[in-house]
Prior knowledge:
Oligomer: single chain
Number of strands: 9
Largest sheet: 7 strands, antiparallel
Structural class: alpha+beta
Amino acid sequence: LSKIKQHSENGFFALSASRHELTAEENKESTNKLKTMLRSVGLGFISLIGGYMEGNTKVVENSFFVPYMKDLMSEEEFFNFAVKVSLAFNQEGFLFKVPSGDAVMLYERPNNSGNSYSKVIKLGKFKVNDIKGKLEGGFSQLKKGTSQKDIKYIFF
């Protein structure tokens, strides 16, 4: 989690390639395509499990935390790439923190409409919190690794 905290201060985006209407196999294929897309431009990532409520449905899916690399692209290019990737996988939203900013923002496309994320919600800074499986506002946790993989964290 220390890497997540460090990178959250320097800028990142977080998103998934999964969609609820796809099969498990299709979501696995989309996830692999997302990994390839990130690597093709030189970006690294940390694999996560993310959870949130979509209407009345509890959703838990694979997602990725992608740290900003200032030597690779400008802040604007990084944001535009996050939008491009999110749209490529028909995502309703993604988390983004501009490197020069102080808060994490949630960019959403209401009803998955259009090619722009017209709703922006300021979430706050990274904090580890034991949310005991609750999904209010969503959560992320490390997919694998140390004993910290079972700790859920949020931005508030």
